[in-house]
């Protein structure tokens, strides 16, 4: 049995990962300050006997010296607001968790000779001028705008990972995650899938930002979690940046129509101005994930949305 730390364990992706690691029979210590994570996401885990949650801020230095974190084998550093609504609401905390918090987790891993996966983001590519995006592409990120607190903090987190891998030989892997979704997304977090599904089920107007021609590549959470587990497991991923995402690209307008159809909704489509620095296109090259991990997504968007809509419907009062 391994002793695994998951930061941001009460968040959307962190809680899904925690459930899978516990299911595999390992001990999980979740760290979360509950700034965007929800206690209900991990409530069922608390009864398993294999999960402990510690309320703390991983950007505080004393987290590295917690007795409960001695003898750990693996760290998944996932703590961070992930939607523009939340990371722009508290930009300094977003910067701290992805820079200082990342340095703290890397130091904790080094002291314990533990492996670490850092969840970075496709936002590291900014509004890309190369399409689709391979890991070698250095990106087109605006450092002087409302998204920079997230984009640039993740990029600096990657630099910390690089230095620990090359200076100390730390077994560090960086996952650049592309739009992950499922029913666990907060329905108030402002991301495309959660927005569209919530609006469609409630019969409200479906809000599209821009003209809807901008594209995204959506990956169902089960596929993303499987990719993260493989990254941790495979030594071939040590010291590597790896895209984890679905290479099937779709426009935001097409997503809106698909959600409306699957939800059998009468909602109308409305259009608002596109936010500053919102990427126009997004699609990962996943050749490295295929070669090093033997990973590619299995669940297509139609099936993933059907599962998501059914789960949201079951949660409605």
UniProtKB/TrEMBL annotation:
Signal peptide: none annotated. It comes from the Bacteria. Keywords: Decarboxylase, Lyase, NAD. It holds the Pfam family Epimerase. The keyword Transferase does not apply. SUPFAM superfamilies: NAD(P)-binding Rossmann-fold domains. Residues 4-245 form the NAD-dependent epimerase/dehydratase domain. Its cofactor is NAD(+). InterPro entries: Epimerase_deHydtase, NAD(P)-bd_dom_sf, UXS-like. This is Nucleoside-diphosphate-sugar epimerase. It comes from Paenibacillus aceris.
């Amino acid at each position: 049995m391994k002793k695994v730390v998951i930061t941001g364990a009460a968040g959307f992706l962190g809680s899904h990962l925690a459930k899978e690691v516990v299911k595999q029979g390992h001990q999980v210590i979740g760290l979360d300050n509950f700034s965007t994570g929800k206690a209900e996401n991990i409530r069922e885990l608390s009864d398993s006997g294999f999960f402990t949650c510690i309320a703390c801020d991983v950007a505080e230095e004393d987290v590295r010296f917690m007795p409960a974190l001695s003898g750990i084998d693996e760290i998944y550093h996932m703590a961070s607001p992930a939607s523009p609504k939340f990371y722009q609401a508290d930009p300094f905390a977003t910067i701290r968790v992805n820079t200082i918090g990342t340095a703290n987790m890397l130091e904790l891993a080094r002291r314990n000779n533990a492996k670490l996966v850092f969840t970075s983001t496709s936002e590291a590519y900014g509004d890309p001028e190369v399409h689709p995006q391979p890991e070698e592409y250095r990106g087109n990120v605006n450092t002087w705008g409302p998204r920079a607190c997230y984009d640039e903090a993740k990029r600096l987190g990657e630099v910390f990972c690089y230095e620990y891998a090359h200076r100390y030989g730390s077994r560090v892997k960086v996952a650049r995650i592309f739009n992950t979704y499922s029913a666990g997304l907060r329905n108030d977090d402002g991301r495309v899938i959660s927005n569209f599904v919530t609006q469609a089920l409630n019969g409200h107007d479906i809000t599209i930002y821009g003209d809807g021609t901008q594209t995204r590549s959506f990956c169902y959470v089960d596929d993303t979690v499987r990719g993260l587990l493989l990254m941790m497991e495979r030594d071939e991923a040590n010291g590597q940046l790896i895209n984890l995402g679905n290479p099937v690209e779709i426009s935001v307008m097409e997503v809106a129509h698909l959600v409306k159809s699957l939800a059998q909704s009468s909602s109308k489509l409305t259009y608002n101005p596109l936010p500053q620095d919102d990427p126009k296109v997004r699609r990962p090259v996943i050749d490295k994930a295929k070669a090093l991990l033997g990973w590619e997504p299995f669940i297509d968007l139609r099936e993933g949305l059907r599962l998501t809509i059914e789960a949201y419907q079951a949660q409605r009062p």
